[in-house]
Design a protein that fits this description.
Order of helices and strands: EEEEEEEEEEEHEEEH
Radius of gyration: 19 Å
Number of helices: 2
Structural class: mainly beta
Strand order of the largest sheet: 1-10-9-4-3-2
Shape: elongated
Strand content: 25-35%
Number of strands: 14
């Protein structure tokens, strides 16, 4: 399906407003025991999942020497920095330093934690404290995530919508997009669709949409 946009949309900055909750991944794309890097606005995150399945979102910087925690590895319910092996528990506190195994680390050595939740098969992060509830996507199911060389605000405008955590898409398959602003000309969209839709067909449709958005930007 070929769509025609009235005119290219351009937005200054990283988006019309900062969203309270922002989707950063499909839950199924982050298996237990794994860590992935994510960028939301100008904030780099290490999003990880403990061996028991609990999801965390931290600032992507080890308090020790600033190494990216997303390069680290998960040990049961802890995230370890790859540089010197410092380990941080689910509260973000350092509780083990391999070079000083008998030392109890000071409580002030902590990773920067952000509120993180899962809803409808998506991982959601709030960069700042909020009383708002985690967005819902209805009866849709996760399909895939796509990199898009267009800002999140531009994607919303091309859909004829204001920027919001979840953007419904007119057309077949009952698609909605949970948008992740990543820069002035880049975002990720985490797509969900009606449970009866064929994932491969939806995926091809999404790629067509992405191509048109990028051509129009």
């Amino acid at each position: 399906m070929i769509l025609s946009w009235p005119a290219p949309y351009r937005f200054e900055g990283l988006g019309a407003r900062v969203l309270d909750w922002i989707a950063v991944a499909l839950l199924e794309d982050l298996p237990a025991g794994q860590v992935v890097p994510r960028r939301v606005h100008d904030v780099d995150l290490a999003v990880w999942r403990s061996a028991a399945g609990e999801v965390q979102a931290w600032g992507d910087r080890c308090p020790h020497r600033g190494m990216r925690l997303s390069h680290g590895f998960v040990r049961k319910d802890k995230l370890a920095c790859i540089y010197h092996g410092w380990q941080y528990d689910l509260d973000g506190a350092c509780d083990y330093i391999p070079a000083h195994p008998d030392l109890t680390p000071p409580k002030t050595i902590c990773a920067q934690r952000h509120d993180c939740s899962t809803q409808d098969g998506l991982i959601w992060v709030a960069l700042e404290a909020t009383d708002s509830t985690v967005p819902e996507t209805g009866d849709r199911v996760p399909v895939r995530s796509l990199d898009v060389a267009v800002s999140a605000a531009d994607v919303a405008a091309m859909l004829g919508l204001d920027l919001a955590p979840v953007l419904p898409v007119d057309g077949p398959f009952d698609i909605a997009l949970a948008v992740q602003p990543s820069g002035p000309s880049h975002c990720l969209v985490h797509a969900v669709a009606g449970s009866g839709a064929d994932p491969k067909t939806v995926s091809r449709h999404l790629e067509d949409l992405r191509n048109e958005w990028e051509a129009a930007a």
